[in-house]
Amino acid sequence: MMRLPPFEYLAPVSVADAAKLMAERGPAAMLVAGGTDLYPNMKRRQFEPEALVGLRGIRELAGVRGTAARGLTIGSGATLTAVARHAEVAGGYPALATAAGLVSTPQLRNSGTIGGNVCVDTRCNYYNQSHQWRKAVNFCMKKDGEICLVAPVSPRCWAVSSSDTAPVLWSLGATVTLVGPAGEREIPIAALYRDDGIAYLAKRPDEILTEIALPPADGLRSAYLKLRRRGSFDFPVLGVAVALTMDGATVARGRIVLGAVASLPREASEAGEMLAGQRLTPDLIDRVAARAARPSKPLDNTDLTHPYRKKMTRVFVARALRRLAGLPEHASGFGVEPTGQELA
Amino acid sequence: MSEKERFSVVGKSLPKIDAWAKVTGQTRFADDMTLPRMAHGKLLRSPHAHARIVRIDTTRARSLPGVYAVITGRDLPPVKFGILPVSQDEEALCVEKVRMVGDAVAPVAAVDEETAERAAEMIEVEYEPLRALMSIEDSLAHPEVRIHEYGDGPNVHKAVSLQFGDVEAALAGAHLVREDVFFFEGNTHLPMEQHSAVAHWGPDDKLTLWSSTQTPHYVHRLLGKILDVPQAHIRVIAAPVGGGFGGKLDPFAHEIAACKLSQLTGRPVKITLTREEVFYVHRGRHPVLMWIRTGFARDGAITGMHFRSWLDGGAYGSYGVASTFYTGALQTVTYKIPAYKFEGARVFTNKPPCGPKRGHGTPQPRFAMECQIDKAAEQLGLDPADMRRRNLAEPFTKTANHLTVTTIGLGECIDRVVEASGWREKRASLPPGRGIGIACSSYLTGAGTAIYWNDMPHSGVVVRADRSGGVSVLCGATDIGQGSDSILAYLAAEVLGIEPKDIRVHAADTDLTPVDLGSYSSRVTLMAGQAVIQAAERLRARIFEAVARKLEAPASALVGRDRRVFVADDPERGVSFPDAVVLGESMHGVLAVPGSYAPPKRAGKYKGGGVGPSPCYSYTACVVEVTVDRETGEVRPTEVWIAHDVGRALNPLLVEGQVEGSVYMGLGEVLMEEQVFRKGVHKIPSLLEYKSPTTLETPEIHTILVETDDPEGPFGAKEAGQGPLLPIIPAVVNAIHDAVGVRLDEIPVSPDKVLKGLELARQGKPARVGPERLPLLTFPAPRAVESAFGQPAENIAERPFST
Question: Are B621 and B414 in contact (CB under 8 A)?
Fold first, then answer.
């Protein structure tokens, strides 16, 4: 079988200690929580840390506080299962419960954390391969190589943001707390991401994401649709998160955030703005969906073809909006649910 | 006597004899084995699709602490081998050239797997890259680049052409002639267990190999040649196999390397492949491009068929010559086809070699043929179920290509799935976006010829009993999860009148068990089954003889049942089975009796006639209902009705398991799975990205078993392990057409292809998605053989070892 490379495992019991260890060890150290993504990546030598700073023993990271009515604070160490099943999450922020519940498999959701999913490494089918495999294609710039194999003339890496929960949290206007040796800061989750497949997080390596805060869910309607081949296991190859703050039957504010079509969650801002002050008519939904697909620019580095993923952006945005409008989800009146949705 | 009364074990849904060990995790697979002082091996594999090896330097690797040995191909005898005598083109470790990414070059044995892996990375290999040929078109377009020096043309491994009767005349007389082109993408077996081998070259200079193999006998034979060691000094034991499906049918580099490393280090050596390596080892489904031209009468009867196939073989021969013939062999056994012509070619490419996967070479043509029939039915205005039903092949006749068919339960299979699925109502009433499709198929119950020419049994069994009352069955057959050990126990128990639990099965050990050719071609239940019945009947005769003397009754009046031997019409007069064995052992001495089986000799007398014959053929009909999302192109099979003519269900539970497993595998092949390459390397060699369905994608499956009591089968049984996969693929594709009017002449059916078809329809163009071009390859002149269509099955003159 594939074996892990040797590494040192450090087990701090407080966030402060963990941050200190990260600062001391520098770039040779990595954080690990559930480890469901990190360990397989280490087996493939995508990561070769000398030390891992484990977050599992830090009690303050676990748990969910608050209520949907007043706002919710989710510890980064909460497992995806815990988030998916939490009554306040499911009641106030159903898109988040859906997204957390659609990550990978039940077993991995029992181990994987929301913090891990928010920070999950970008993916690319030239990169998520064994060292031997990558050697056969002469490696890519994200690890051990010089160029991007998806877009060889491009100066940057185009690995894909593959988090299910990140676009949802972005659409909900979540903030995250980062704790580092220099102290603590709270930033909008939108500011956590960078449009670069390698340096995809605007977080210093010695900063630890400790909490995710959600604003009150008053008048909120939210949905998340995920495109993937199978009802389990698969990462998203398109995610559509829609959050609407309703004022009666009118949308006060709408946010549409696309997942897995860029190196970061991509907000379809113009489309979102089109919703403000409007009622959700089928006609509006069609126009908004068409506009929302514009910033969707997938490349050929995941499952399913990229023109197809682009085409599905419009369909999925329309379906998410129709669901939130209480309309039949399929414009054509028949069809199957997108794979995996029945699990929501 | 009713069927139920006739049997005491056969026909009962019993758990497998190894079920408890499997479900409680106590089965010891090869990778679970640990021997004292055991070393762990790792293979350095080629990162190039095609390259000359200039230099290999193992110095640094050998100097790493914890490394016991590092070898290269130079440490092995300079022989090439291959599973088929006609394709001796493999080296366990490449010496001069690598032909694919993943070709084995140099293995390491070390104290642990981590050290072996590090050492393998320290081996320095200098390559001179050669042009990689990654498709049939590539390989034919570059005759100046040669993957191998042998074959039927530059990079053409094999080209065959057979003609049975006057096909052109048959087509000329047809009401409708259809010409269609189809493509079936390659896919792989995906067994849960990765290949693993433990070799121990003992202090007695004899070799023992435990391996997850489907064919310990073939591995045994070839190891002798490859290692240049007398076969008498080699023992091969098949460890419990965690799924085979054809992927564990060749001798592999890791097995050979483990043996050699064990010899050199004096330690047992274990090598377990990673999942990625399993994708490189492959030997799976060939990508096949097909052209099919068929004549149909007004009522749908087939007047003649001309079939061409181009197989993308990958880097080595493997079973490829057989695969090539199989793409043309079984078209004729389902429906009447009076005249038939087949041309096929297998082309080498720099990819993992293809070979046998469940259905070996026949799912591809079955997909093409059953989809074409669906199109013809539409054109002729016929119901596709009725059209098939009317034109079934005749039982106990020969086909155009000289295959002898015995019982055919296909008519009942069609009737049952049509009835159960509500076919007629649904054809008329399903709303747009939902559709229903039908397809049929047939498969061999065991290959009629061995892969090497010989007059010996294909399957051998020894049944022994002793004064303990215990019975052992010794047989070379390999249980790969299909339950063959259980079948051996059931059949022996049935004959002897005891319970399966009273029997211990010792299988697949070349030292202890008589030869069985292996678990492939759906041969084990029939062949090992007939052998165990013969052996058990001989044992029973000896025991009855002794009991008869004791009871003073004629042996012919005795029966064995309920662990007793007694006078049939006076059940009180009898002895317990253990007492009966004591009487038998007292009279005859040691009770260990052999049974042997070889198929009836009736292969067609033409070159290539050895591929296709079988003692009997199973038949399957399948109806699938699908829902197609017109916006996303997603296809969801919602319900499957499948009827399988299994001759007799020796254990209905196991047969249903085989049928359901086949359905699941077929759904993966038609909707998701593809072994595809990019930049010379397998694009997605992982369980995460090579998409195979999960339980969530598996629809409700209604399995119907049809029994025809075939005279060739053990208690009438035919195969169940492969045939039921075949009709799933075309049935799904035909159902998609019924749902949205799109013809998918290419699989897998990804959602973008469905959308492409719908878009074509919107543009008013033919809604067909499939291959547009055929390779430029001239087939040899056909070997013309008279069609044997409709001739009665002859009384078989030669039936070896039957008495």
Answer: yes
Between the alpha carbon of residue A9 and those of residues A46, A54, A131, A255, B793, the distances in Å are 18, 7, 23, 41, 72
> Could you say which of B117, B684, B697 has the minimum Cβ distance to residue A125?
B684
Token digits of residue B290: 């097909």
- Listed in sequence order, the DSSP H helices in A234-305 are 269-275, 282-292
For residue B320, which amino acid is it? Answer: G
> CA B497 to CA B736: how far, in whole Å?
50
Contact B694 A233 (CB under 8 A): yes
Q: CA B490, CA A169: separation in Å to the nearest integer?
A: 59
Residue of A108, A121, A133, A330 best to disrupt the B interface, most CBs of B under 10 A: A133
Q: Are B632 and A137 in contact (CB < 8 Å)? A: no
Q: 């997108």: which residue's tokens?
A: A338
Residue with structure tokens 């805060």?
Answer: A213
Residue A342: pLDDT band with limits 50, 70, 90:
very low
- Rounded CA separation A108/A116 (Å): 12
Q: 């090539």: which residue's tokens?
A: B324
- Whether residue B748 is preceded by a cis peptide bond, meaning omega within 30 degrees of 0, is yes
Find out whether A60 and A15 touch, Cβ atoms under 8 Å: yes
The residue type found at B398 is K
Tokens 């296809």 locate to: B635
- Here the contacts of B53-57 (C-beta below 8 Å, separation 24 or greater) are B53/B94, B53/B95, B53/B96, B53/B97, B53/B98, B53/B105, B53/B125, B53/B126, B53/B127, B54/B126, B54/B127, B54/B128, B55/B124, B55/B125, B55/B126, B56/B105, B56/B106, B56/B123, B56/B124, B56/B125, B56/B126, B57/B123, B57/B124, B57/B125
Q: Left if phi > 0, otherwise alpha if psi is -120 to 50, otherwise beta: which for B680?
A: left
Taking any CB pair shorter than 8 Å as contact, residues of chain A touching chain B are 1-3, 6, 125, 128-133, 135-137, 149, 229-234, 303-305, 307-308, 311-312, 315, 330-332, 334-336, 338-340, 343
Residue B4, burial from CB neighbour count under 10 angstroms (0-12, 13-18, 19+): exposed
In this structure, are strands B503-507 and B471-475 parallel, antiparallel, or unpaired? Answer: parallel
Confidence band for B1, pLDDT divided at 50, 70 and 90: low
- Give tens-digit pLDDT for A136-188: 999 999 999 999 999 999 999 999 999 999 999 999 999 999 999 889 999 99
- Taking CB atoms and an 8 Å limit, are A334 and B114 in contact across chains? no
Amino acid at A297: K
- Sheet of A71-75, strand order: A64-67, A71-75, A208-214, A175-180, A183-188
Rounded CA separation A197/A156 (Å): 7
Please say whether the beta carbons of B767 and B760 come within 8 A: yes
CA distance linking residue B548 with residue B600, whole number of Å:
34
Rounded CA-CA distance B543/B520 in Å is 34
- pTM of the model as a whole: 0.97
Q: Provide the 3-class DSSP secondary structure of residue A260.
A: coil
Q: Write down the ipTM of this complex.
A: 0.95
Distance CA B439, CA B189 (A): 23
Considering CB atoms only, which of B117, B433, B752 is closest to A334? B433
* pLDDT, mean over chain B: 97
CB–CB contact B114 A6 (8 Å): yes
Compute the half-sphere exposure of residue A314: CA atoms within 13 Å on the CB side of its CA. 13
Nearest CA in chain A to B756: A308
* Nearby residues of B149 by Cβ (< 8 Å), 6 or more positions away: none
Quote the tokens at residue B81: 């081998």
Q: Say how far residue B136 (Cα) sits from the centre of its chain.
A: 24
Q: Which helix (H) or strand (E) holds B435?
A: strand B434-444
Amino acid A9 reads Y
